[in-house]
């Protein structure tokens, strides 16, 4: 009982709210559109936050690799600078010992040989490897200066002790060397004493990292990175960091570190090990791929020329250490410019990897939730819309039934009296004539008795239709009793109202009505007409009473007639 009570209270409340709006369906639609938009905006907001987190995670992942690589490179560069300082100190104040004297004497003895090696103390130092005076003289870049060669050799000897001490096991394996313009070199991976020395020295000074360190090519005397092709390397490529050695205005040579590509591959694989999603690639400053965290460099280029141009334009304005991201076809690209290498790291995250990853799973759940809530919203919209439609049409039916007579479709007594009173008062205010016609079907009881009640109903509906067709717009008719009708005619005199009544009478009486197959009936009606002007009274009830008296008179006088006098 309590439940049904609260349901009906709720129903009434909804009905009251709905009745305030002319078109409740529109209100329901609007409400659901607002809820739909609200839930979509919320989901979209979640998606934006998720996207931000995804971008940050991609950046962090690349940032970790970039930091590790930068830290390692920084360590190596620090070593390189330390070696250069050692050489500079040695050039400033060369040490003269038995060993240096022996080294210089050996050099003087061997300097014309096509190749030579000074193996002073191999347990504590690295061998010095050199080429002939002739070789040096044939190259415009090289210069065996008699004034400085001995000082340089003794300084290089000191460096060879330090280099020998440096730890061999590195996180990022590399080769350190000093290539002198005076025709000798020192390397952490010394060659045997054979003709190979000439080829090695030639390759060292022929590579771009050497010539790029000349005062003309490197006026700032800064560290430079180069990416060169080395046919002896398994991958054919090598990355080199080089700095010039200058003293007293003379360019002595180049101190350099080079990294085999394999070591960079291994480094990237280890650095990117924790993050299983995506591939990290190291590119040089001309956007050539160098190394990858994948098994090997891709056989086909990862990017088309326009895509590379897009990356290049994003990176051009960036400073060292900057990072950014780009969307390319179905891939998400994150890039980071390294602090200690003139190139950049690029992380490629494909859509497939993204979908399988954590963010992909969350995005799918979010999309499914949004679709489910939208589906449920749509289902409830259909139900509520139907409910509201039903309530609205029910309300309209009830409202109609409260005011109209269902049989004749004319106003019922209550609604008619209310309207008639209103119209009479309006006419009174505007001093217009106002008339009332009272109509009653003749001998209607006999039709009921003879043909049945349903036939009687048919006659009543027919008479009402005749009535409705006959009066003018502005006139109002109602069923005020069983077979009694009343018509009010605003702005109509008694004479005009009498004519209207006469017209209705003729129409009703002129047509045979088919009651059932083979049975027709001709009906008639009597009319009483009254007017406000003749009584100087606009009270509707009194005017109707006058009209009713005259109707009675018409009945008395033989029915089927109009009476407008007492
Ligand atoms: N079929 C039908 N009959 C109705 C309805 N309302 C009233 N009546 C009948 O209408 C009849 C009216 O009869 P009376 O008032 O005696 O008048 P009459 O037979 O029309 O005779 P006069 O008015 O003197 O011409 C009654 O028999 C009522 O039962 C209705 O809605 N349907």
Automatic annotation (TrEMBL):
Its cofactor is Mg(2+). The keyword GTP-binding applies. The keyword Glycoprotein does not apply. It is a multi-pass membrane protein. It catalyses: 2 GTP = 3',3'-c-di-GMP + 2 diphosphate. The chain crosses the membrane at residues 27-44, 364-384. One of its GO terms (molecular function) is GTP binding. One of its GO terms (biological process) is negative regulation of bacterial-type flagellum-dependent cell motility. Pathway: Glycan metabolism; bacterial cellulose biosynthesis; Purine metabolism; 3',5'-cyclic di-GMP biosynthesis. It is found in: Cell inner membrane. Its main location: membrane. NCBIfam families: GGDEF, PRK15426.1. This is diguanylate cyclase. The gene is yedQ.
């Amino acid at each position: 009982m309590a439940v049904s009570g609260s349901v009906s209270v709720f129903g009434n409340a909804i009905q009251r709210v709905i009745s305030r709006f002319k078109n409740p369906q529109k209100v329901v639609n609007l409400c659901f559109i607002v809820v739909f938009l609200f839930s979509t905006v919320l989901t979209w907001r979640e998606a934006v936050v998720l996207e931000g987190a995804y971008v940050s995670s991609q950046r962090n992942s690349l940032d970790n690799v970039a930091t590790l690589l930068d830290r390692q490179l920084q360590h190596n560069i620090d070593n390189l600078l330390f070696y250069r300082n050692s050489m500079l100190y040695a050039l400033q104040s060369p040490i003269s010992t038995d060993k240096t004297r022996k080294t210089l004497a050996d050099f003087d003895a061997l300097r014309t040989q096509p190749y030579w090696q000074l193996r002073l103390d191999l347990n504590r130092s690295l061998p010095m490897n050199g080429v002939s005076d002739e070789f040096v003289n044939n190259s415009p870049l090289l210069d065996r200066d008699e004034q400085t060669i001995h000082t340089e050799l003794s300084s290089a000897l000191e460096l060879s002790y330090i280099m020998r001490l440096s730890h061999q096991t590195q996180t990022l394996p590399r080769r350190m060397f000093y290539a002198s313009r005076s025709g000798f070199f020192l390397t952490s991976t010394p060659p045997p004493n054979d003709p190979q020395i000439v080829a090695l020295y030639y390759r060292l000074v022929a590579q771009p990292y050497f010539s790029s360190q000349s005062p003309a090519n490197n006026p700032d005397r800064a560290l430079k990175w180069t990416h060169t092709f080395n046919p002896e390397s398994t991958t054919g490529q090598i990355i080199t960091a080089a700095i010039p050695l200058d003293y007293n205005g003379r360019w002595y040579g180049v101190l350099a570190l080079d990294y085999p590509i394999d070591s960079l591959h291994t480094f990237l694989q280890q650095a990117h090990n924790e993050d299983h999603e995506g591939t990290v690639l190291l590119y040089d400053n001309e956007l050539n791929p160098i190394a990858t965290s994948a098994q090997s460099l891709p056989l086909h280029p990862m990017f088309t020329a326009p895509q590379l141009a897009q990356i290049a334009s994003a990176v051009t304005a960036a400073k060292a250490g900057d990072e950014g991201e780009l969307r390319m076809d179905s891939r998400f690209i994150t890039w980071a410019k390294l602090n200690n290498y003139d190139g950049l790291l690029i992380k490629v995250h494909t859509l497939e990897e993204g979908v399988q990853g954590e963010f992909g799973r969350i995005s799918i759940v979010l999309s499914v939730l949004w679709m489910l809530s939208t589906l449920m919203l749509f289902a409830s919209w259909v139900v509520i819309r139907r409910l509201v439609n039903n309530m609205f049409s029910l309300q309209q039916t009830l409202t109609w039934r409260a005011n109209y007579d269902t049989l004749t479709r004319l106003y019922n007594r209550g609604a008619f009296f209310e309207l008639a009173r209103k119209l009479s008062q309006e006419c009174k205010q505007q001093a217009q004539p106002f008339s009332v016609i009272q109509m009653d079907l003749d001998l209607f009881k006999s039709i009921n008795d003879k043909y049945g009640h349903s036939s009687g109903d048919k006659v009543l509906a027919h008479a009402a239709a005749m009535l409705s067709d006959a009066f003018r717009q502005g006139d109002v008719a109602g069923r005020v009793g069983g077979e009694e009708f009343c018509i009010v005619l605003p702005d109509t005199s008694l004479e005009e109202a009498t004519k209207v009544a006469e017209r209705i009478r003729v129409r009703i009486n002129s047509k045979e009505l088919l009651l059932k197959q083979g049975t027709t009936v001709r009906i008639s009606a009597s009319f009483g007409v009254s007017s406000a002007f003749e009584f100087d009274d606009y009270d509707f009830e009194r005017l109707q009473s006058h009209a009713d008296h005259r109707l009675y008179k018409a009945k008395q006088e033989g029915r089927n007639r109009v009476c407008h006098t007492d």
